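pasting for the record
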Amino acid sequence: MSVAGFIRDILPLLWSGLISGCLYGVGALGLVMVFKSSRVVNFSHGNLACLGAFVVYGFSSGSLLSLSWGSAVALALGIAAAIAVMSYALIAPIVFKSDLASTIATLGVGLILQGAVQLVFGADIVNLDLPLPRFSFSLGAIRVSSYDLAVLVVTLAIVGGLFVIIERTKLGVAFRAVSTNPFACEVCGLNLRSVHLFSWLAGAVLGLVAALLIVPTTFLSSTTVPSFMLQAFTAAVVGGFSSLPGAAVGGVLVGIAMNLFSFYVSPEFMNTFLLGVILLTLNFFPNGLLERAIGGRV
């Protein structure tokens, strides 16, 4: 293969990997938010995001209601937030007793949510598109679409918004304090449950946003979004569950790595590849690949 041919192949792969990696990063941010505050790996993350995406579909397609896409998203966000509150209320008594038991409990919550999706919406595959204008343009060998630009804008807005909240608000200061030393915060009178609830609500919103952005590239079913969360989980492991910037950067790294593996090796072994990445990272870089680069800062 010539150098020109290699560049012609690699640039589109890197670009599409960046776009998909942004989605994995957004999903990973939701996982890391919950883990940093409550030390719980929320395995119901994908199931809740899936339910929210189905609510948007039901309210905008006419199967439940005939609302505009924006109104359907607003209602779905409210429902996802309410379910996140109920989920945390269910798990909260266990959180302060055992991290492992709390993590296992999220598996049960996830199965309940998956059953609810199948009960209400069935097991059929549906399409859920974004209301975006259709256009694209070329930058050399890279083809940029309106969808790509939407993903980049939303991702940058989310990362910027989280930075402002966590670095510039009292709630963000409380979140950082609880993430660092929850025992000292409790001694000082800080309400740990309120900080936990904030992170669970933020995680639910981030998961739904990621689901709404990823579904148009595939399809929506009761298993699509939970399967997508394997990529988000890998991104969180690669970037480090103790770092929000690491989760975002880890998402991009995983997205690019997946594209290269799919193109040069085989897409059939993608899940095996992701599990291998998780195992290697946990063995050699248990705090994430980016620990030394960006440290353990929130």
